[in-house]
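Q: What residues go here?
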């Protein structure tokens, strides 16, 4: 099982994302945890209002929405009851067992997975710290759930997927060693990965310090549909002795690649593998205005997706390719849609990773965290919990302006000094 945690300040946008999947028939709300009604009896507004009423308890914390996806191995056949039970166990493990949460089973990818929408604002107005939540609580809980429910272990799967290592440039001076190293990479990439152009093939090969060279436009290699394979150094420059495709026993020639391109194009057209990449990008950028391109690339990489960018001399992005190491599929950004192309991603990401909004959010989170660590306990009304204090209907009704703002969360007024004395 792989858990991916996203946080934001836009609850409605996150909920709409899952509800849109539900309307399209690609998802189902299978559980409503700490709600007064079952999931199938709730309207969109009731789902939204229940969590919004909790957000209203703490106006100062801006990052107040938590969106988690739990991803399982394609070989696992998990029913709705099992997925709901696993989701509940996961929330308990990360300290969210008392939070209102909605669980959606998504059916738009090649593997079983659920999305959980919840909040880190507690019923007493304090907040659950999100610092290192994924690294600490989530990772520990994931491993426990894998054992308790007999799931495929993420670390075992990761070892199987990434056994291919980059070619070492130490082989650059020996043709036999270079050929052997390149052959190891080609044998796995050509058999397992799905690509439809030389550019997409090179996007994968370059990850392992190998390049397929078809020559310049008027070169002899291009004229005779030839192809050379080369080793790259850490800067992407060609080094060592080039090897002709015909020198390899499995003949990775240009003609053979064209057959691969056609077969792979049919597979990619019929499969839903592209949805995993698009969903990962959308979830990372959903409701956020402070994600830079490097940050997006880093988050996708943690989800098993490498991003290859192409920039001009001015440093402007003009091309982008996504390599999904889990589905073994390669996608040019423009084929996924305009919003996933180089231009679309540039418009959706910010230039400055340390935006003013992010800095303010961090400062506000620190202020509230310091207040909590000082031993302040925030109570609503007479100190009873929200569930005990309100009727079932009021829990699902909209929040009114000025409602549920705990006084301890407001800034205390500075006392006016009545007088002063001077000492000599």
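A:
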């Amino acid at each position: 099982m792989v858990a991916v945690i996203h946080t934001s300040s836009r609850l409605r946008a996150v909920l709409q994302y899952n509800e849109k999947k539900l309307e399209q028939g690609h998802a189902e709300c299978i559980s409503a945890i700490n709600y007064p009604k079952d999931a199938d009896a709730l309207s969109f507004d009731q789902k939204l209002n229940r969590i919004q009423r909790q957000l209203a308890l703490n106006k100062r914390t801006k990052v107040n929405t938590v969106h988690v996806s739990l991803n399982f191995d394609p070989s696992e056949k998990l029913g709705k009851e099992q997925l709901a039970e696993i989701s509940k166990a996961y929330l308990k493990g990360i300290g969210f067992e008392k939070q209102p949460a909605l669980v959606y089973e998504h059916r738009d990818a090649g593997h079983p997975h659920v999305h959980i929408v919840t909040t880190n604002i507690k019923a007493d107005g304090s907040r659950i710290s999100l610092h290192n939540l994924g690294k600490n609580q989530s990772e520990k809980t994931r491993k426990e759930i894998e054992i308790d429910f007999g799931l495929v272990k993420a670390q075992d799967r990761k070892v199987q997927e990434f056994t291919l290592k980059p070619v070492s440039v130490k082989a650059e001076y020996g043709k036999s060693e270079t050929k052997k190293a390149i052959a190891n990479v080609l044998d796995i990439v050509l058999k397992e990965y799905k690509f439809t152009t030389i550019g997409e093939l090179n996007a994968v090969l370059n990850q392992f310090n190998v390049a397929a060279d078809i020559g310049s436009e008027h070169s002899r290699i291009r004229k005779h549909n030839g192809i050379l394979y080369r080793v790259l150094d850490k800067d992407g420059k060609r080094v060592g002795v080039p090897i002709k495709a015909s020198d390899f026993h499995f003949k990775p020639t240009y003609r053979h690649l064209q057959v691969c391109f056609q077969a792979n194009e049919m597979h990619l057209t019929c499969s839903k593998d592209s949805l995993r990449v698009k969903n990962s990008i959308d979830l990372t950028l959903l409701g956020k205005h402070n994600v830079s391109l490097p940050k997006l690339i880093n988050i996708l990489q943690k989800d098993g997706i490498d991003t290859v960018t192409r920039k001009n001399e001015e440093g402007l992005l003009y091309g982008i390719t996504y390599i999904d190491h889990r589905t073994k599929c390669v996608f040019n950004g423009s084929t996924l849609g305009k919003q996933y192309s180089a231009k679309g991603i540039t418009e959706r990401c910010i230039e400055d990773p340390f935006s003013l909004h992010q800095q303010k959010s961090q400062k506000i989170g620190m202020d509230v965290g310091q207040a909590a660590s000082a031993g302040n306990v925030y109570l609503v009304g007479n100190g009873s919990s929200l569930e005990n204090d309100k009727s079932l209907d009021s829990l699902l009704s909209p929040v009114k302006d000025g409602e549920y703002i705990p006084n301890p969360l407001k800034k205390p007024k500075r006392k006016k000094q009545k007088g002063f004395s001077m000492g000599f």
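A: Context that may help when evaluating the design: The longest helix spans residues 175-192. The mean pLDDT is 82.
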